[in-house]
Amino acid sequence: MQEDFHYYATYCAAYLAGYSHEEALDICYSAQFVDLCSKTLLIKIKAPALAATTQLQLEMMDSRTDILGIQDITRIWAAFHFLPKDLYAQKAKRTKLYMNKYRLICGPNGDLVVKTVELAKNKPLASVGIAMHVLADTWAHSNFAGTPSLVINNVTSEVNEFVTSEDGQEIERRIKFRHNPSAADDLEKGLFTNSLYQGDEESIMNLGHGRAGHLPDYSFIKYRYVPAWNDYEDIVKDNPNDYIHAFTQMIRAMRYIRGDIDTFDKDTYDFEIIEPYRDRIEGIIRKRQLIASDDWKAFGEELSGEKIPDFDIEKYQDDYINANKRNKPFTFLGRFIMGAIAHKGMVANEIYKSGNLIAGFTKEISVGIRSEEAV
Fold first, then answer.
1. What is the structure's pLDDT at 115?
2. What global pTM score does this model have?
3. To 10 degrees, what angle do helices 125-140 and 21-33 make?
């Protein structure tokens, strides 16, 4: 997913869940910050690198792909962007090494998404935003794993997009891929950028959905592709359907975190809450455009009657840098950092407890402040 959903759509979901304008801004800022909190940034503000929730392209180019390097990559990407759906999944006649990777395949409505939402309850709003980023990505990034792996994350070159013909019929059109990361995807021509094929099993090019380019990040697209892990049988990925479920599940999760409902259960969604706005929301989701920020922003401002500021990566950095050691945890970034460390520790520990060392030998980290302390 992109800034359009993690920032602006998350604001809309938070507001519909009952949060105030100011609270919704904190939640959506944190949700978007997950895509930007790199080790480089943390070093710049003299914060613990353990809290990294993403890796910059330059960082990834320098990443080691030995055991320790793979563990570091996996702790970040599996925790925050490709949350595993089933750490105990079964697949016949596969090696343990293969299964360790197979069990990291992302998908919605797994046990870990419930633990993610429960972990954010009674925590500062920064932790709520982290949880919403992770939850949303389980829908967008499903079928890919947050660890470098050719045998899991590779897709064939035969990817078809479902488009509407001139006579209104749904037809399939072959997508063409190129490997120029500086070139924008061309929706009219069906020309998209993906990562360059690398035969090395653990090449960084085989991390996540790189081999499928940005297709998982576009809410409007429905496409057919063939992933390596599925024994090269095709899958139809219906992003409009997935994104509306992600949006309504975020509302449900935040209502649980707020205390409006008693439990957060898998496969539950708050479609009733969006009913007055459903046509508007689905219109934004299905509109063919590279990024839907303007449309989500306009919808959010109509909901609350308030202005939603553009995301500013530097907004809270001075507050954190200038705070003394005792007060740093109570700054916005301090709360985010503690929430990120706690979430990463939870996920890494669950992977380890399943008998899988791909994210390292670890234990759950209990860190953070309760919501009533975050004033």
1. 98
2. 0.94
3. 60
